[in-house]
Design goal:
- With 614 residues, the chain is an alpha/beta fold.
- Helix content is 37%, strand content 20%.
- It is built from 22 helices and 23 strands.
- The two termini are 45 Å apart.
- Pathway: Pyrimidine metabolism; CTP biosynthesis via de novo pathway; CTP from UDP: step 2/2.
- It comes from Nicrophorus vespilloides (Boreal carrion beetle).
- Pfam families: CTP_synth_N, GATase.
């Protein structure tokens, strides 16, 4: 255990969105593989208190934490890479800092003093970082030893000046041997010349140093691999040694990034610079084995599955980052590469057939040809009818379907309209006065205040006793209770639950009080499952989310043998599939089950003890 907390500040230059989140996560991944406890903090310089009221088109998806914190999507990267559980305070915003300082001023903590950016705001930032860095985030419950801090935006932005000044002071507060800075910069390569340009990086580093922070590591992002001569030039003009310049080109998988960074000798440098005490005799790259194995497996997958995401914010793929990552985790674990097709929900609506027939027919063509469909969450009226249409098509045509949050609600509405024949069935989110309000708001979560008032965070879902044979319960290893993260303001109207279940829509999971519906499943469908919670938030590269795993396997007609095996894949199947293998396994297991049955005195039959292996 190190005596002092170590801090790695990750800044960005030239452009935003250069990949600081993945680079920060990769730093943490490498250190965690060395046996070091790691935590992460993301700083967003905007004045909002949190990301909860953002449109996904602003900064991508809103990621939800266990404690209900609505945060930047980069915290999702941290959790997926490091397999940790972060808290709302791991996301710092200008709004949070100013609110804390103003509350202190109102309380009288600064009596007699003028409250200013320096020292009061900068001190508050430093205190926040030191406090949060000590909070355990891993399953071990141990205090972190290294805190990786990502400063959002670009160096030179007026919004982030207070944070840059805070860390200029902070490096002296914690001492040099406990603090280092990594600067992520873009190295563009104009097509007109084909030459990689270092001037933007030089200017960015000069700006950073002018603000009092000298980078210890420069991470150069580029489309193609950077030449050694370019690396030497950056080293020469940016006042760092060549081994402190790390070049990360665009890669086929983000899980290759920590492997590439480690190959640049980052462990040896950080070990010396921060006095981490890592065993120098640790076999090179052996400690990264699980990441190397994962990236090689992804690289060598031969079969593909195509999944459609019918959403409302499809113009920006980052709007569904966690969903796409969860699909990739499940597909890769099942032995498939994945092709994701984004379909704008409003293009599936009948009105679009008149307004833009080309978009309408293209959307339906894309939906029909995919092997499975996901309808994710969202807010507002736009696109709801398109999501209902997608759910209807999947139900009628036995297409594997996974609905999440709003996708859960729209599937219930579709069932009420077309199976129960309840004309006018809809959600109160779209219309205030309804003949059949199938989806209603939760009064305690609709207070008039929009920020932070939804049903948020990790909550328990209990499987009903009648759900023991359901696919989704078996995918969750027949657990009686599961915990998943939520983010919603509307729920299924309890008045219609009996009618819906009588019609064949089985609600297999409910909240702990038994009043709110959490999961439904259609029994006679290959895979028609929807959840009120967001299973994508807890998906990890090594442990895919069960609902997504079910969708992928159902899309390839592999779900039945997977469930018979007790939710296990054979080593061969994890990498490749023989089209006939699963049918043979199913037939063999059914035969074994029949042989294991012994007659009872009443003429019925039961399984003998020899069948326990199944």
């Amino acid at each position: 255990m190190m005596s002092n907390m170590k801090y790695i500040l990750v800044t960005g230059g030239v452009i935003s969105g250069v990949g600081k989140g993945v680079i920060s996560s990769s730093f943490g991944t490498i250190l965690k593989c060395c046996g070091i406890e790691v935590t992460s903090i993301k700083i967003d310089p905007y004045i909002n208190l949190d990301a909860g009221t953002f449109s996904p088109y602003e900064h991508g998806e809103v990621y939800v934490l266990d404690d209900g914190g609505e945060v930047d999507l980069d915290l999702g990267n941290y959790e997926r890479f490091l397999d940790i559980t972060l808290h709302r305070d791991n996301n710092i915003t200008t709004g949070k800092i100013y609110q804390m300082v103003i509350d202190r001023e109102r309380h009288g903590d600064y009596l007699g003093k003028t409250v200013q950016v320096v020292p009061h705001i900068t001190d508050a930032i430093q205190e926040w970082v030191e406090r949060v860095a000590k909070v355990p985030v891993s399953k071990t419950g141990k205090t972190p030893e290294v805190c990786i801090i990502e400063l959002g935006g670009t160096i030179g932005d007026i919004e982030s000046m207070a944070f840059v000044e805070a860390f200029r002071q902070f490096q002296f507060r914690v001492k040099r041997e406990n603090f280092c800075t990594a600067h992520v910069s873009l190295v563009p390569q104009p097509r007109s010349t084909g030459e990689q340009k270092t001037k933007p990086t030089q200017a960015s580093v000069r700006e950073l140093r002018g603000l009092g922070l000298s980078p210890d590591i420069i991470v150069c992002r580029s489309e193609k691999a950077i030449d050694q001569s370019v690396r030497n030039k950056i080293s020469n003009f940016c006042h760092v040694a060549p081994e402190q310049v790390i070049c990360i080109q665009d890669l086929s998988s983000i899980y290759k990034v920590p492997i590439l960074m480690e190959s640049h000798g980052i462990v040896e440098y950080l070990n010396e610079r921060l006095q981490l005490g890592i065993n120098p005799m640790l076999p090179a790259r052996k400690f990264m084995k699980q990441w190397i194995d994962l990236s090689e497996k992804i690289e060598n997958l031969r079969n593909e599955v195509e999944i459609a995401i019918v959403g409302k914010y499809t113009r920006l793929e980052d709007s569904y980052t966690s969903v796409t990552k969860a699909v990739q985790h499940a597909a890769n674990a099942a032995g498939f590469s994945v092709k994701i097709k984004f379909i704008e929900a409003s293009n599936l609506e009948n009105e679009m057939k008149q307004e833009c027939p080309a978009s309408y027919h293209e959307a339906w063509h894309d939906l029909v040809k995919t092997e499975g469909v996901i309808v994710p969450g969202g807010f507002g009226k736009r696109g709801v009818e398109g999501k209902i249409a997608a759910a209807n098509w999947c139900r009628v045509n036995n297409k594997p379907y996974l609905g999440i949050c709003l996708g859960f609600q729209t599937a219930v509405i579709e069932f009420a309209r077309n199976v129960l024949k309840l004309e006018g069935a809809n959600t109160a989110e779209c219309e205030e006065v309804l003949e059949h309000p199938i989806i209603i708001d939760m009064p305690e979560h609709n207070t008039g205040q929009m920020g932070g008032t939804m049903r948020l965070g990790k909550r328990s879902t209990v499987f009903k006793q009648s759900a023991s044979s359901s696919k989704i319960m078996r995918l969750y290893n027949n657990r009686d209770m599961i915990e998943e993260r939520h983010r919603h303001r509307y729920e299924v109207n309890p008045k219609y639950i009996k009618d819906l279940e009588a019609g064949g829509l089985e609600f297999v999971g409910v909240d702990v009080e038994g009043t709110r519906m959490e999961i439904f499943e259609l029994k006679k469908h290959p895979y028609f499952v929807a959840t009120q919670f967001h299973p994508e938030y807890l998906s990890r590269p090594m442990t895919p989310s069960p609902p997504f795993m079910g969708l992928i396997l159902a899309a390839k007609d592999r779900l039945k043998p997977y469930l018979i095996r007790g939710c296990k894949l054979s080593p061969r199947q994890e990498y490749d599939y023989d089209e006939s293998e699963d049918e043979e396994v199913c037939a063999s297991m059914v035969q074994q089950l029949n042989l294991a049955r012994v007659p009872e005195s009443d003429g019925s039959s039961a399984y003998s003890s020899s069948s326990s292996m199944l």
